[in-house]
Amino acid sequence: MRDYYEILGVNRTCDDAGLKSAFRKLAMQHHPDRNGGCEDASGRFKEINEAYSVLSDPQKRAAYDRFGHAGVNGPQGGPGGMGGGFDASDIFGDVFGDVFGEMFGGGRRQSNGPQRGQDLRYDLEISLEQAYAGAEVEITVPAAMTCEVCDGSGAKPGTSPTVCGSCGGAGRVRATQGFFSVERACPRCGGSGRLVLDPCSGCHGHGQVRKERVLSVRIPAGVDDGARIRLAGEGDAGQRGGPRGDLYLFLSVSPHELFERDGLDLLCTVPVPMTVAALGGEIEAPCLKGGETCDGTCRVSVKVPEGAQTGKTVRLKGKGMPSLRNRQRGDLVVELFVETPTHLSARQKELLKELAGLCDEKQNPKSANFVGKAKRFWEEVTGN
Which residues line the annotated binding site for Zn(2+)? Predict the structure, then answer.
């Protein structure tokens, strides 16, 4: 499906006047009556109508800019490719509403009253430090706002919208089709029941304008990847006095170069010199420190048991992630990685050779166990 801005030949910063000018020019050029009923021209004309019907509506344009076609063609989306403001769901919904409404307690939908604004989604990436300690972040959200010039009426200050003569202000028109009485949104006023004859210069008759808002959001300590935060009333403005929609923040935690998260536990692999692993001792490992004044890393002492092997883990209680539900904290799990020394001097090699000559199966139990298993395997294979 082609980009709506590309269809109209405008850029994404184009204002309402530019959109209208581009639409009129293309509509005249591709109108079927001016092209002898050509199917290509008819298809192009519908495509132009669909693009303009979305981009000329502040709410639909905001949704399209953020989510693309999925934002306007979903269950509550826009034109759905029909063009010309025609909504098939109006016909089918009202047909069955008329026939079965009284039986099942249903009723007709009212489209000319106050309408709640659309909900918005904002994807926010945070660091593991921010997820650990909590943070106050600022985000910039484009949203439909009530026009301050006309206070949302869409009419020029000093004037008011007039009642639509086609529907008498009901926003719906009815026609009889066979045995059914079909009702749909009034095509003249778009279902609002009102007509703006002298449009406001600030919003060009829409009653809303698109603006970017800067919001301060508190990220609670302990949030995990995929968490969702609802900000009530921070979505698009409602129409005709309706309430604002909500803003939903979807959080993703960026990968950390030192830690991996496993529930409330933090996992960290730390290299250990061979001598410390053999003799035992202490090493330093990084850990996260929370609080309002510190969101960076700090050090924690880890005791390495004598004879520690690669893969040995040391669990430090209460050094992991905080819980969102209570005061519980996870653990910091330090996995030891025994490091073999490199670039040895002649003296160091001499000492290691001397050590190797002094070691036996007691010092290398795993090696001795493996050699025993390997010897039995070879005997079974060779029969010797």
Answer: 147, 150, 164, 167, 186, 189, 200, 203
pLDDT in tens, 37-79: 677 777 888 888 888 888 888 888 888 887 777 767 644 443 4
Q: What is the pLDDT of residue 62?
A: 81
Identify whether residues 41 and 72 lie together within a single domain.
yes
The number of C-alpha atoms within 13 Å of 294 and in the hemisphere containing its C-beta is 7
Inter-residue contact 93 to 108 (CB < 8 Å): no
Question: What digits encode the pLDDT tens for the residues 146-155?
Answer: 898 998 888 8
- Mean pLDDT of the region 131-149: 91
Top-confidence residue, 64 or 236: 236
Is 282 domain-assigned? yes
**Which CATH number goes with the domain that contains 14?**
1.10.287.110
Answer for the pair 266, 321: CB distance below 8 angstroms, yes or no: yes
Domain match, 212 and 337 both: no
Is 167 within the bounds of a domain?
no
Instruction: Give percent of the chain with pLDDT exceeding 70.
Output: 84
CA distances from 8 to 14, 25, 50, 112, 199 (A): 11, 9, 10, 29, 23
Does the residue 158 lie in any domain? no
Last residue of a domain, one of 86, 106, 133: 86
Output the known binding site: 147, 150, 164, 167, 186, 189, 200, 203
Distance CA 376, CA 373 (A): 5
**161: in domain:** no
Domain boundary among 213, 238, 253: 253
At 25, which helix (H) or strand (E)? helix 16-30
Domain range spanning residue 133?
Answer: 120-149+204-253
